[in-house]
Every structure is written in C-alpha cells, then in structure tokens.
Amino acid sequence: MRKRVPLNAIRAFEATARMSSVVKAADELCVTPTAVSHQIRLLEDFLQIQLFIRKNSRIELTTDARANVARITQALDLINEAVLCLEKSDEDVRRRLSVSASASVVSLWLMPRLSEFMKTAPEVDLNVRTFLSRKEAESQESDIRICNWQSQLDCQIEPLIEEEIIPVCAPEIAAQYGGNARDILANAPLVHVDRIQDGLDGTYPDWARYLTEYGVSRSDLSHGARFNQAGTAMEAADAGVGVILGRSLLIEKAIARGTLVPVAESYPIRSPYFMLSPWKTDGRETMQRFKDWIVGKVRTNELVHAI
C-alpha cells in the first residue's frame, strides 16, 4: 500500500527547487507565495527533514533535497503525461471499433469489403475478431457482433441478412456429369462440414436433409471429405474435392470468379443473421457509421438477401 504523500506540497517544493524562487513557483502554480511557503513547510513536517536553507532573500536546497529533486521532477512529468493521455482517451474510444464474426464470415465475406469502409473512415482503429462457437462469441468483448443465432445477451439485436444454402462445385466436376444437377447430386463426391453443436450453425441443413428435400437417394451419405470449418471446406470444394452445400455469404466471390458453379436449387429455408450492438451508443458515431455501412453492403449483395 502506497504511503499517502501530500502531492500539492510536493508540487510546490519541486517548482520552487526548479526555479530557485518561491515567487516564480507561485506564479507557475497560480497561487500566492505565502501558499507555496506553507506547502513547503507542510512537506518538511511530513518528511521530518529540512528541504531549503533560507539565506535572507535567497533559498538553497539542502543536500538531501538536491539528491532527490530530479527524481521528483521526473515523477511529476510522468503523472502529467498520464493525465494528458486520459484527456485524450474519450476521443480514442470514439475512434476505436471492435467487430466480431465467425472465422469463415470474416475471411470470405467481411474482409473483401473492409478496405472500402477503411477508405471512408481512415481515422477509425478497427479491431476484427473471429470466433468458432457461440460460447466464444458471447464471452469476448466486442462492439458489434455478426452472428446467426438469437442471442440472449442484453443488447440491441437487429436482423441483418438471410443466407441461402446452395450446392456448388468446381466447374470441372460439373463437367464430368454433363452439368446435370441430379447426376451430380447422386454421384459426385460430397464435402461435409461438421457443424458446432452449440447453436452457432443449428439452422443449416446437412446433405441428408438437402437430398431428402429434393428426392435424391444416395447410399454413401457418410462418405467424403469432412471439415470442422466452413472456410476450409469451401477451399476444398474450390480445389475440386467435391460438391458442398455452399453458404451464399461465403461462396459469392468464388461464383463471381467462376471457380465454383451452382449445381441445383437452394434449400427452401434461409438462415438468418443478426447484428448485435450495445443499447446505448452515445458518442459512438463510429459504431453507427459501421452499422450503416454494413447494412448498405447487404442491400447491394446479389446472393445474400436483406430482411
């Protein structure tokens, strides 16, 4: 525990020692010379030592005081710098923004667009975080979360987008089956994504649900490459490993490039995404700017449908 030192008295002593004058110290501290002399006497009483030798109108530091005054000056400079940093912190907070989403959404949907936001808001210090599960997402600190579940957090929850599930594969695989959708679904190798079972991906169909919906029968539904993340599964499909139930949020760039092609109809049930943010955003214009920007990107997205 720190000893309670009289900071006002220390400031009076340091200013007087630095200027070798009570009058000049009083002017710097915006007090009277009498007040400075009083504070110095308080400090001498507190320390039980003499700090100055008074010779008529002149004062001189004692040996002990001279040995320590430089360190006291450095300490007061550090305090001053720290306080100035605190004065700037409100503005710094307004400029900072943390955004979190699943690793696949960040890498395949958000990242290709972020340069546009940063060009419109170059002063913003953006911190992008990823998560792999609902538990991880809701336990980490973040200003804005993009997630595909109805959270129980005490925050503002806004519908953002709906995502379609579309079977896609590399063009060369589609060509092997003449581009026939039923032949591709019935015979092409399947790529699987093992969904996390804590609510993060609970609304997405697997191959059994999708093929049943469209009356396609396969005896090898459990076979094929398996991945625990949608992003790496998409990379595998892009490399020609097989057909994947692609999430429209993640596959749009690959379809635009032509490295993946749609195979058949999308699953009839869409999966919603939500944007989570604090109830109160007073003084956080940066947060609202990002929210407005991302909603605008959703509205211009051809494969992802705005709610």
TrEMBL record:
Q: Is the keyword DNA-binding in the record?
A: yes
Tell me which residues make up the HTH lysR-type domain: 5-62
Signal peptide stretch: none
Which Pfam families does the entry mention?
Answer: HTH_1, LysR_substrate
GO MF terms here are: DNA binding; DNA-binding transcription factor activity
Domain of life of the organism encoding this protein: Bacteria
Q: Which UniProt keywords apply?
A: DNA-binding, Transcription, Transcription regulation
Q: Family membership, please give it.
A: Belongs to the LysR transcriptional regulatory family.
This protein is called: Glycine cleavage system transcriptional activator
Q: Which organism is it from?
A: Aquimixticola soesokkakensis
